[in-house]
Structure formats: C-alpha cells, structure tokens
Amino acid sequence: MPSRTSWQRTFRALSVLLLATAATLTAPTAATARTTGASVSRGWNDYSCKPSAAHPRPVVLVHGTLGNSVDNWLGLAPYLVDRGYCVFSLDYGQLPGVPVFHGLGPIAASAGQLATYVDRVLDATGAPEADLVGHSQGGMMPRWYLKFLGGAAKVNTLVGLAPDNHGTTLLGLTGLLPYFPGARDLIDDATPGLADQIAGSPFLTALNAGGDTVPGVRYHVIASRYDEVVTPYRSQFLTGPDVTNVLLQDKCALDLSEHVAVGTVDRVAFHEVANALDPAHATPTTCLSAAG
User: Fold this and answer.
1) CB count, 10 Å around CB of 58?
2) 10 Å Cβ neighbour count for 7?
C-alpha cells in the first residue's frame, strides 16, 4: 500500500504535469513576451479610433489562457488594423502575484471583466456594437458574457480561434485526475481558470445548458485538426443558428497549425477571421491566403 508521502508526491507530480503541459502548449514564447512594452506603437488600443463606414464595429481581441493583451495578438492585431479596423485588446483573469500570464482566474469573473471592457470600447468609439475575436479560452469565455451578462445586445459577431467551447481532455491527461485524490481540488484552488476548462466542469455544464448560442449573435469557429490542447478538436465546434464552423485543413490541406499557431501566426486563419468580420466582402480562404 503506498505511503501517504508517496501519494502526496504522485499527486504533486500530476498537478505539475497538467499545469506544465498547459503552460508549454499555450504560453507565449519568451522572445514574444519581451516585446510587450513596445507593442503600443503597433496601431491598436487607440481610443481615438473611430470605426469607418466600411468597418462600423470595433474589434475586441480576447487572449487565451496564459496569454495577455499584447503577446497573443502581435500577428492578428496589425493584420486587422491594416485592413481598416479599430482594434482593441484586454487583459483578464489575472491572479495575484502572477504577471504577464493571465486567463487563470475564474472564467465567469473574467467574463465580467470583458463586459466592462466592451462598454469602455463602445463608449470611446461611439459604436452600438462590437465584434469579438478570441483565442482558446478567449473564444469560449465571451459566450458567458453573451448568455448571462447582457453581451448579446452589444455584440454582433464572436469569432473563436481554437476555442474550447465544450472543454478539453488535454490529450487524455484530465482523465487521470480521478485516480489522484485531491488533484482536482488543487487545480480548482490554484488555477480556477484551468479547472473551468476541463471537459464536464460545472462552469462548462452551465455555459452549454440549453444550447450553444444565443439569438442575435453570429458565431464563427476556426479549428485545426492538429490542435493538441483543445481535444478532441471537434469539441470546439458549436451547434445552433447563425453558426459557421471551419476546419482549417478543409480550406488549406497543407496547413499544419496547432493550437498556439492558429491564434498567433496562421495567416490562413487570419483571412478566415477577416471573412467572418465582413461576410459581405468575403473571399475564398485557401492556402494562398497565407500570402495575403
């Protein structure tokens, strides 16, 4: 019979494995993180920006777990700014004493932060509605805002890049939790934002009860079959009216992007985001979109 000390060591090891795996697969690189201070000159988070007739809604970018308002968007934000959008991004889900790596707090509370931020953007721009583009948790968390916090009246479109709409098994690792008493409690207490994303969590059960969508909002999900964080990858897709689910490999069979790349560097995915934001002027998304 294993000793108490042995169980404690195993339990800690499993917890570290889960957290380290999530961090390795979703965190920005150190090189990217060093650019944080210089990013304000990249053309977004300009509160004097007024939406144009061509793009009448500001775009709010919602980072993923262990991301932040800058590092997650060094590729997509300039891409959208160059196309004439007013683009904004927020930090959410901060834990005390944990800088740079956000999205770890309770997701319902993070949705409240998003609600406050969208109001700020709408006040600054004078627009009646915004569009949201989120990566990973940032593509799923806004659905709580839309469903429970009045966001449906203020949002036209939600675009999710590799969103964990129905949670994740993290390549099966979460299935090991029941074998280690106390492991789930540790994750709940230390990083509730991670616990909320485990498939079958109370948060996700409440979020998805009664259907995936709410009336009046268009939903556009962009996923990759090579996603190693949100697994199985098809759990990212939504069902309901006004939903478009896109598998990147159906657009470009050569696209090998995994979870992080879908939201940070994949210009095929970026092109599909642009189509989702302006469907009236959408053009086919193909492998050639990477050059656009």
Assistant:
1) 24
2) 14
Amino acid in position 40: V
Distance CA 231, CA 218 (A): 24
Instruction: Count other C-beta atoms under 10 Å from residue 55's C-beta.
Output: 18
DSSP-based helix, strand, coil % in the chain, nearest 5:
45, 10, 40
What's the pTM? 0.87
Please give the structure tokens belonging to residue 279.
């469907």
208 burial class (0-12, 13-18, 19+ CB within 10 angstroms)?
middle
Cis amide prior to 279 (ω within 30 degrees): no
Burial code of 107-126, b = ≥16 C-beta within 10 A, e = fewer?
bbebbbbbbebbeebbebbe
Query: Rounded CA gap, 93 and 109, in Å?
Result: 7
3 state SS of 157: strand
CA distances from 292 to 80, 82, 249, 273, 288 (A): 12, 11, 18, 13, 7
- In angstroms, the CA 133 to CA 215 distance is 18
Q: Do 44 and 73 touch, CB atoms closer than 8 A?
A: yes
Summarize pLDDT for 246-286 with one digit per residue, the tens: 999 999 999 999 999 999 999 999 999 999 999 999 999 99
Q: What is the pLDDT of residues 6-16, one digit of tens each?
A: 444 444 444 44
Tokens 């590092």 correspond to: 71
Comparing CA positions, the residue from 85, 72, 219 lying closest to residue 160 is: 219
Question: Residues 6 or more apart from 78 whose CB is under 8 A from it?
Answer: 42, 43, 44
Q: Please, are residues 91 and 63 in contact by the beta-carbon 8 Å criterion?
A: yes
* Residues 141, 274, 130, 96, CA torsion sign: positive
Closest-CA residue to 33 (of 264, 283, 279, 272): 264
Separation of alpha carbons 200 and 167, rounded Å: 7
Cα separation, 265 vs 270, in Å, equals 8
